[in-house]
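Limitations

Structures in this collection are predictions, not experimental determinations, and the ligand pose is part of the prediction. Treat each record accordingly. The example that follows, with arginine as the small molecule, is included so readers can see exactly what is and is not provided: the inputs are given verbatim, and the output is the predicted complex.
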Amino acid sequence: MNIKKWSALIAAGVLAASLTLFGCSSGGDQGSTTSASGTDAGYTLINDGKLTVAASLDFPPFENLNGDKPEGFAVDLMGLLAEELGLEVNYLPSTKFDTIVPLVQTGGKTDVGVSSFTITDKRLQQVDFTDTYCNVNQSITVRSDSGITDVSQLEGKKIGAQTGTTGYEWAAENIKDAEVTGYDEMTAVFAALDSGQIDAVSVDLPVANYYVKSYTDCQVIKEIPTGEQYAIAVSKENPELTKALNKALQAVRDNGKYDELVAKWLE
Ligand code: ARG
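Predicted complex:
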């Protein structure tokens, strides 16, 4: 590798490291938009007065189920955004992750998809995204007794990830000869690691950090500076809703409530 590439990589690493610490802090000055609000806003809703949300509720600390109640950073954030818009939030029953973007795209079932969606070129062809609300990196988790301490040792090994995620893609593209298995639910991926069906998990770092707390024999061995940005998925047919959500996002950044959520869930 030439020097230019290395310094770019180092710069990316430094940037990523600072994002890890402050990835979800405020200070984003994402452009906001029109002054539209409430029912005159020009957007459409599945149910009047309600913001209907599709989510895969298996991704703590962002969106998870506490009994049958959705909870997490993004769930609270959606509550705040809806409040700004004068709407109630209505979470649909937990939805399989890789079906949510198509669901938003097709229309008729949900107003938004909120599932720690990393903005990707492929998804941008299917849906619109709001301004970003969080920055994260990928990570690799293994069993503590596995003797695996570096990604290079994963060559030819079994990796697990949630189907349709950036973690799945990262593993498939970057780990030589890896056998990557996709699972519907994040919980199943960690259960498979714990029981020895797979050798490593590839997932967004804050989520890995959360899961290893309940699987004490597992540890995160690597942060991968992918520099991903989370945003809310909205139908391309409903651009005024994207605008309204961006305006609400800016408002909760400005009034300090966004920072309270960061402190509550992510620090
Ligand atoms: N950020 C990753 C992606 O966009 C993983 C998101 C998984 N979300 C979830 N709620 N299970 O592909």
